[in-house]
Design brief:
The complex is a heterodimer of chains A (194) and B (279). Chain A contains 5 helices and 12 strands. With 194 residues, chain A is an alpha/beta fold. Chain B is built from 12 helices and 8 strands. The two termini of chain B are 28 Å apart. The chains are: A alpha/beta (194), B alpha/beta (279).
């Protein structure tokens, strides 16, 4: 199973390592044409303004929307969550507008307010070690969105059908269970499509 | 998450906005860029907090600021302002000739310069969470950054191939903690990211550093000392992301205007060389 990691900026190598440890083949994605050969896509953490700008520049906006329309699963982490949201607070233009969520950027504060915690995530057997770095928050969820975990009553993991987002960085630890969860989404999705 | 991308030196809110719009992943707020520090001479200190606050107000990307090597209080002052990263930097005049800042005493992460593996691991021991090369800043000359990146990577390869019993002597040779060296031996890489910094003046320079294995690039004087900062900034961002796409680098390099004027490093006297500061 081939899973791509959007490699415009951010934690690319870490996601590749995690996805391979979870049992799939990781592909570094720099061009929209590469999406054709993939069964799932991860949009990594980094700076959403940088990633959003480069996605527009290289034609990734339309290409990823098409990828999602075909029902292929997408997993956005941290900045990836921001670029998948329908609405970004503070007037910033939304990017892919795939998920019915409203997000607040840098909601936990600046770099020094970054932290780690053990998080219960619906669908995972054990709590997950979650690393929050200048993390965004989901402030509102709309139609078809299921909340998978919260931290201090704030939504930090959510799913809408074949779309998955987390406001933390699951790729920075040796716990690959959320990547495993994403691979299961791809497998189930294939079963449905077939 | 600081990985990949370009961090740009800015001297005011307006430049910070240009950098963010061009796709910078962070900005370094300074009173003067390195080439001006070089020109002005005298003691270079941390920036006026007003400039740092101004920059923090106008951008949503992380803001970094520089403190002098060993200047605990400058670092604490910048931390209190809420900056996202501190650079204990040789670009400023060192405040301590023996000791670097104990970076474990801070909640804000530090980036530090390193010319070789020993220096990188000593900084990491002190608590640095990001390393960068110490290319000769403000010169527009990439040669020193290339030297540091190549040296660190070749030293890592050497350590990776050593037998475990050889690591004890190597730890002594490099002047580093054994446990940290063992980690490098086992993983074949530094435990933190390593960015290129110092002398990056063109999109091709940035791509060269990525080709040599940098995790990202700092651009100091290169952008706002060039003829057209906006174009340069965008071009360097694109070349860093697509560092193996030479056609694209050719495309973004067209009609950029004059880059910053460079300095031949062998013409610098020992006292003028900044990369020798820090140990």
């Amino acid at each position: 199973m081939k899973v791509g990691v959007l490699a415009l900026q951010g934690a690319v190598a870490e996601h590749i390592r995690s996805i391979e440890s979870a049992g799939a083949e990781g592909v570094v994605v720099k061009h929209p044409e590469q999406l054709d050969e993939l069964e799932g896509l991860i949009i990594p953490g980094g700076e959403s303004t940088t990633i959003g700008k480069l996605m527009r520049k290289y034609g990734f906006i339309e290409a990823i929307r098409y990828f999602a329309e075909k029902g292929k699963p997408i997993f956005g982490t941290c900045a990836g969550l921001i670029v998948m949201a329908k609405e970004i607070e503070g007037g910033e233009e939304a990017h892919l507008e795939l998920m019915n969520i409203r997000v607040s950027r840098n909601a936990f504060g600046r770099q020094r307010e970054s932290f780690e915690t053990d998080l219960d995530v619906k669908g995972l057997e054990k709590p997950l070690r979650a690393v929050f770095i200048r993390a965004p928050l989901i402030t509102e969820v709309g139609k078809d969105v299921e909340v998978l975990s919260t931290y201090k009553d704030e939504i930090v993991t959510a799913r809408q059908g074949h779309l998955l987002v987390s406001s933390f960085h699951p790729e920075l630890t040796d716990d690959y269970s959320l990547h495993g969860y994403f691979l299961e989404m791809i497998k189930t999705n294939k079963a449905v499509v077939n | 998450m600081q990985k990949g991308g370009v961090i740009m030196d800015v001297m005011n809110a307006e430049q910070a906005k240009i950098a963010e719009a061009a796709g910078a992943t962070a900005v370094m707020a300074l009173e003067r860029v390195p080439s001006d520090i070089r020109a002005a001479g005298g003691v270079a200190r941390m920036a006026d907090p007003t400039i740092v606050e101004e920059v923090m107000k106008v951008v949503s990307i992380p803001v970094m600021a520089k403190a002098r090597i060993g200047h605990y209080v400058e670092a604490k002052v910048l931390e209190s302002l809420g900056v996202d990263y501190l650079d204990e930097s040789e670009v400023l005049t060192p405040a301590d000739e023996v000791f670097h800042i104990d970076k474990r005493d801070f909640t804000v992460p530090f980036v530090c310069g390193a010319k070789d593996l020993g220096e990188a691991l000593r900084r990491i021991s002190e608590g640095a969470s990001m390393i960068r090369t110490k290319g000769e800043p403000g010169t527009g000359n990439i040669v020193e950054a290339v030297r540091h990146m190549r040296l660190i990577n070749s030293q890592i390869r050497k350590v990776k191939n050593m037998s475990k019993d050889e690591l004890y002597a190597e730890a002594k040779n490099l002047g580093v903690a054994y446990d940290l060296l063992l980690e490098v031996h086992e993983n074949g890489k530094l435990p933190v990211v390593n960015f290129a910094a110092g002398g990056v003046a063109t999109p091709a320079d940035a791509a060269l550093m990525m080709h040599l294995g940098a995790d990202g690039v700092f651009v100091g004087s290169g952008i706002f000392k060039s003829d057209s900062p906006e174009k340069f900034a965008r071009a360097i961002v694109e070349a860093t992301t697509h560092f193996t796409d030479y056609k694209l680098i050719a495309e973004v390099s067209k009609n950029l205007g004059t880059p910053m004027k460079g300095i031949e490093i062998s013409k610098l006297t020992a006292a003028e060389r900044m990369s020798d500061r820090g140990w």
